[in-house]
Structure formats: C-alpha cells, structure tokens
Amino acid sequence: MDERVKVTIEAGVAHVELARPDKANAMDRDMFAAIGDTFRRLGSDPAVRAILLSGQGRHFTAGLDLDYASRQFPPTEDPGRAAEARLRHILWLQETFSAVEQARPPVVAAIHGGCIGAGVDLASACDLRVAAADGFLQVAEVDVAITADLGTLQRLGYLLPHGLVRELAFTGRRMPAEEAARHGLVNRIAESRDAAIAAGLELARTIAAKSPLAVAGAKRSLNMSRGRPVEEGLRDVALWNAATLVSADLGEAIRARLGRAEPRFGPLAD
Fold first, then answer.
1. Strand partners, 201
2. Which residue of 96, 153, 224, 240 has the fewest C-beta atoms within 10 A of its own C-beta?
3. Tens digit of pLDDT for each residue in 103-118?
4. For residues 14 and 51, is the Cβ–Cβ distance under 8 A?
5. Residue 51's Cα: distance from chain center in Å?
6. Architecture of domain 5-208 in this structure
7. Whole-angstrom distance, CA of residue 62 vs CA of residue 212
8. Distance between CA atoms of 154 and 227, rounded to whole angstroms?
9. Which one, of 100, 152, 108, lies nearest residue 130 by Cα?
10. Domain extents for the chain?
11. Is the full-model pTM beyond 0.85?
C-alpha cells in the first residue's frame, strides 16, 4: 500500500498531509485507516502539542472515493446480515474522524481547493480552519443519494447557523471560503494553498508554545460542554482545574511572566 498520509513533526507541531493527490485525496479504505491510525497515534504523543492538517495537490480532498464505496456492499441473500455489516462499517468510518476530534492537541485544518463530502466531515472534526481564497466546502452527499453520516450533520450545527447547515445539506451547493469565514466556520483566509498552510502553521506554533496541560484542558472542556447544560460543563471544568491547576506549568508561567521571559513547558505524559 502506498502512503496515504504523510507526517512530519517539528518543534511540537505535527504536519499531517493527505497524500493521494492523483485522486484529489479521495478517501478509500486505506486512507480512512491511515487517518484514524495517524490521529490516534499523534493524539497521545507527548511530543506533539498542535497538529496541522493539509492536502497535497489541487484539492484538500474530494471526499469519499466513489469507486471504493461502490464495491463495499455486494448483493446478498441475507439483508439482515448485510445491514449489520453496513452498520459496523459506518461506525468504523465515523471513528476515523472522531479520532481527529479526540486527539489531545488542537488540530488546525488548512483547506485549499475543494473540501467535499467526507472532507467536510473531516474539517468539522478539527478545532480550527484556515482556507485559501480558492477554497470551498460542499456537503455533496445528497448528490450521490447519501445522507451525510460521518459527522457533518452532528458537528457543523455548532459551527454554523442551523438554517445554513440545512441549506448546505439539502442542496449540496458549494460554500466559498469567504462565506465560510463570514459565518465563522473558517478562522482566516489566505491568498493561496501555500499561504494557508503557512497561516495554519503559525496558529499551530502559537498553540504549541502554550502550556500543553492548559490547552488540553480547554479542548476537553469545550468538547465535553457541547450540547450539555452550562452547569454540567462548569462542574466538569471545576473538577479538571481542581486536579491540574497546581502544576509545573503554572509555576513556569508565573516565573516567565515575572521575569519577562518566554516560558518553557515540559511534555505531557503519554
């Protein structure tokens, strides 16, 4: 199997590249497996404090590889067993992108060209998004008679107004980067693919310089609080801080602030 995902790590920042440019980074089984394995590994790596996700070639990703999808469920004489197999397969695909959301370090997506179908599922699972001016997002599943099932319908409503999410899901129209930025889905726009990757790296490096314990706690609390009552989120973050507040990071941050120096934080445990 050729490499579907390439990873480089420098100064606490892991750069993950979707690496199937000849197929517009369309996701087949091997790519789904590689994405899941990569983010599960990086998500618990104490040397990694932020992750940048980008795509090689002309597009971030064309989404699901339709040739792969068309071969997944051949005709069978037992519809019950076929349905059970489909369910297990869909859950496996969902876990691939949940690994992105559950990774301990924040994930920044640098989007250029098309971010289509499963690409929107993937981008929605990231913490931050930057986009090249030519970038667009498209919830395209409706055009191939599929209900989006890998996270877009569950996550995008926390990032965009619900009416807009419904429009995108029901019509399959393209959302240009400028519109995505206007609604807050994209944090910033850059001139080109290279500029978007540079902007994403800048964000990732800024995050990597902060206390990894504080950043991990913030991501955990934000994810945990989504869809829950405020009171439940407050109790949870109180327990987190009660357990972690008096840490080496706090002492280092205060020392650096008083000495007008740059703090140096140690890695988290694996």
1. none
2. 224
3. 999 999 999 999 999 9
4. yes
5. 9
6. Alpha-Beta Complex (3.90)
7. 33
8. 10
9. 108
10. 5-208, 212-258
11. yes
